[in-house]
Amino acid sequence: MKKLITIILLQLAFLSSPFAQPKFNDSKLAHEYYRNKEYSKAVIFFEELYNSTKSKSYLTFYLNCLWELEKYDEAEKVLKKEIRKNPNDASLHVELGTSYKKQGDEEKANAKFESAIKKLQPKTNDVYHLANAYTRIREYVYAEKTYLEGRKLLKNNNLFRNQLANIYMYQRKHDLMINEYLFWMLERPDNIKHVKNRLNSMLMIDVEDNMYQMIKTEIIKRIQKSPDIDSYSELLIWLYVQKKEFRKAYIQSKALDIKRNERGTEIYKLANLAVNNKSYELAKEIYGFVMKYGPESSVYYLARKNYLNSSYLLLKENRDFSSEQLGLLEKEYEAAMSEFGSYPQSASIMLDFAHLKAFYLHDTDGAIVILDRIIAMSNVEPELYGLSKLELADIQLMNGDIWEAALLYGQVEKANESNPIGHEAKFRKAKLYYYSGNFHWAQALLDVLKASTSKLIANNAFELADLINSNTALDTSESAMKLFAKADMLNYQRQTSISLLTYDSIISLFPGHSLADEVYLRKGDIHFSEKDYSNALICYETITSNFPNETLGDNALFKLASLHESQLGNSETALELYQKLLTDYPSSIFVAESRKRFRILRGDDPTLPETQNIDNLEIN
Q1: Contact criterion met (CB below 8 Å) for 475 and 520
Q2: Does residue 532 fall inside a structural domain?
Q3: CATH code of the domain in which 549 resides
Q4: Which tens digit of pLDDT belongs to each residue from 232-250?
Q5: What is the pLDDT of residues 247-257, one digit of tens each?
Q6: Which long-range contacts (CB under 8 A, 24 or more apart) does 177-180 make?
Q7: CA–CA separation, 310 and 268 (whole Å)
Q8: Is residue 578 packed enough to be buried (19+ CB in 10 Å), middle (13-18) or exposed (0-12)?
Q9: Domain count, the chain
């Protein structure tokens, strides 16, 4: 019993001694000296800490201090001693090789690096350990050799796919990197997500676009060799989407959909992406493909609805639509209404159809009938119910029933105080006050909306508030502004001829007023919508010539360039105008679209990045 107590006391004494464990303060002080690059002080502590613990972490810091102090002989002595104790620890040979390399002895360094690999044991963890040691010192060639030797020792060529791919990426051996990633992707389904992330990182820094071509070529080659492996097709579709080559993605997605009998469930997502990128024609084509599956497809109704919506968005985007196109779209909506009926499930289609009728087909009575049906439904979604009331209010305002419109806006606002629909209702009520010339009440609402969580509503509130403030500050009578607001309401109500006369009266009654550029922009937009391009041209040119430094200067210039490009067919003039916008208004919100159109008109390769096509804005 006495002997046992003696042993326990001796163990406790050892554990409490400074040689058994590092002192916390010593470790903290050592690291502090190291961070401050006081290596002569840090080395003393790390030596003591390593000797007392034999921790690899302290050895690393100890060696780094010796190297910083150029005490290479001492470092070599320490490492050789450790190697004698642990001859199978390959990482110690890496450290010794590093020491030789720091002295400039490449031959001895490489010999040590090679010997470390020769000592490698057929154990997965040993391979990782040694390869990581090389990776830490950026000896990627030896890290690569380690993984390849590990495959041989473990007799499995499928090991270390992800790790080797990363090493090849560091070495810029992109063809080998892609090869490893594509093999690794097949090991389990989740790997494809990681591969996409890594490849996407490479695509983002691939200025010359070589990576995209390399990845695409390799995937296509594998699809041709192994057509039964769907993962390759999935990755190719993803790759096309990254470059916004949606038609190519559609061709692959269509084949995969048919092969897997997915009935449009996956390819439908691609159509939504096409819509988000304003590729409405292609979106219609994809939705049409999904619709061929009929109601048996779980996304049939959504495809039917979004097909109509894409047609509507395409019509709005082009602006230059014919009555025949409108009539065709009306028939498509009527066919959908006939198929789905007036039920809560089809309320969103009904809402879109009502908007088309009121604001494009000028059938406000028909639009009101549809909206009344939605509002009368007992179990329609609250959001659709609110949107339908907003649409009805807009139509009442267009019909001149201001009080009914105000009542409906108020009802929606009160029922949706803390959500975007309520904010939208408040904004439209503010516009109603504006149209009526009640600027004080309009400003009160707009001031609240400037803090809206909806960026669009907040921006619209700022824009309208700025219009009112900028053009009433020096005009206490507000006469010109009230006339302008009246013209805006007439324009909204589609009384364009009277609206144009009212805008003109502002120019004649208030010469030199700050509203002049706003007037010409409004007039230009009206003429454009009525396909009176010659007068639209005059209005936009008046702004760019007489008011280039006003807030609408870039807006008018962009519309002028678009007019020459799309309606007048003057590509050279459009090219010059887009270049002028890029040069004179570098911070304009129209810069991105102008640059895109500039590149297309100049004949640049759209698949190449902008830095390769436009080093400057000189016209070649």
Answers
A1: no
A2: yes
A3: 1.25.40.10
A4: 999 999 999 999 999 999 9
A5: 999 999 999 99
A6: 178/214, 178/215, 178/218, 179/218
A7: 13
A8: buried
A9: 1
Name residue 72's amino acid.
Answer: Y
Q: Report whether 535 contacts 562 (CB < 8 A).
A: no
Residue 453 DSSP code = S
Cβ contact 417:425 at 8 Å: no
Is residue 392 within 8 Å of 375, Cβ to Cβ?
yes
- Can you read off the two tokens belonging to residue 190? 């989740």
Of 126-130, 468-472, 540-544, 614-618, the one with minimum mean pLDDT is 614-618
User: Phi and psi (nearest 5°) for 396?
Assistant: -65, -40
Cα dist from 593 to 548, 568, 587, 589, whole Å: 20, 19, 12, 8
Q: What confidence tens digit (pLDDT) does each residue in 406-420 have? A: 999 999 999 998 888
Q: Is the pLDDT of residue 342 over 90?
A: no
Q: Is residue 106 part of a domain?
A: no
Q: Of 117, 169, 162, nearest to 143 (Cα)? A: 117
CB distance 387 to 351 below 8 Å = yes
pLDDT above 70 covers a percentage of the chain that reads: 92
pLDDT in tens, 169-197: 999 999 999 999 999 998 887 889 999 99
Output the CA–CA distances (angstroms, integers) from residue 172 to 137, 140, 168, 219, 566, in the order listed: 17, 11, 6, 19, 44
**Residues 302-322: tens digit of each pLDDT:** 999 999 999 988 887 776 677
- Closest C-alpha to 603, from 580, 572, 558: 572
Give residues with Cβ within 8 angstroms of 98, minimum separation 6.
109, 137
pLDDT at 4 > cutoff 60 = no
In the numeric block, which tokens belong to residue 250?
């559609």
DSSP 112-150: HHHHHHHT--S-HHHHHHHHHHHHHTT-HHHHHHHHHHH
Place of tokens 């604001």: 359
Q: What is the dihedral of CA 553, 554, 555, 558, to 10 degrees?
A: 130
Which domain does 580 fall in, by range? Answer: 515-613
Q: How many CB atoms lie within 10 A of CB 339?
A: 12
The one-letter amino acid at 44:
I
Identify the burial level of 6 via C-beta atoms within 10 angstroms of its C-beta, where 0-12 means exposed, 13-18 middle and 19 or more buried: exposed
Residue 541 lies inside a defined structural domain of this protein:
yes
> Quick one: which of 111, 121, 202 has its CA closest to 165?
202
Within a domain: 597:
yes
Residue 329 CB: number of other CB atoms within 10 A? 20
